[in-house]
Amino acid sequence: MSIDIKLSFFLDRDRCLEAALTANSQAAGMEVKYLQTQPPREVYRSTNVNSTQITIPLAQARGINALALIRHNLTVDALVHLYGHSVNDFSNLSAVDFKLENQDLFPPIIGFGEGGFGEGTFGGQPDPEDMPLYSESSWFAFADQELRYWFLKIEDPTNPDGYIQIGRMMLGTGWQPQYGIDWDHSIESVDPSKQERTDGGGMVVDIEPQYRRFALSCSGLTEDERYMRAFNMMQRLGRNQAFFMILFPDPAKNDSIFEAGYVIAVDAAPIARHRREFSKARFVFDELI
Predict the structure, then answer these.
(1) CATH code for the domain of 255
(2) How far apart are CA 197 and CA 255, in angstroms?
(3) Distant-in-sequence, close-in-space partners of 19: CB < 8 Å, separation ≥ 6
(4) Residues 155 and 199 in one domain
(5) Which of 12, 43, 264, 282 qualifies as a cystine partner to 269, CB 3.0-4.6 A?
(6) pLDDT digits (tens, 9 = 90+) for 31-79
(7) Peptide bond into 107 cis (omega under 30)
(8) For residues 281 and 217, is the Cβ–Cβ distance under 8 A?
(9) Could you give the CA distance from residue 280 to residue 93 in angstroms, rounded to a whole number?
């Protein structure tokens, strides 16, 4: 399946792993610590849909510019608020060093008045039944911050499930190739199930869940992107270190998610300089399920 994807974003340095997370609400057996597990088979659940609060104290001040909430059940009406501070005190949210408030989880797919569908039923946010087809993950990017203590608040009072559930949370630094990605990219479904014949001649199927494989090329990497980002991603091959990857359908904007994946790098081609001052890298990512 080849798709015309012009932009990509990678959250590749997850600082959430070092934090001792605490929350104001957590269901039994679904503690907030499960936001740090990989892959996200165990989930965090909060019964406080009006104001779920998670405190994220890092080991030290870190560079942070992105937050990702992966495999969640949040609705289009949910609001996310993220705060950062130099001290571990969030009693007065108006006095913190950084705030990102009232963030929608699902920006409009096609804005009102855009293109031929912007004024019809295809405008705005996805319908609830269609939302999982777009993504069960959300991301928020902002200017670089270097702070140690972080505080996340989520409001989703009309959630029909009666609870807030998140499979994985990533807080760290992300990057977006300045010139997008090349035409050489694909998405495929991988079925790892195995068939084995028994001694009696019968057939046994070891059924495994299917997952997606993403392959893409970045052909306009600057020198900084080549040495500080692409090389770093290649060095994680075989180390079971996850990325959050987002693909966008439109080169003119990056607020509409085409597809998002919680992935590990499984293959990469050597970085080649294909023109003066620019390099090309190719990656293959497998989705963690």
Answers:
(1) 2.40.30
(2) 49
(3) 36, 56, 57, 58, 59, 150, 171
(4) no
(5) 282
(6) 999 999 877 778 999 999 999 999 999 999 999 999 999 989 998 889 9
(7) no
(8) yes
(9) 44
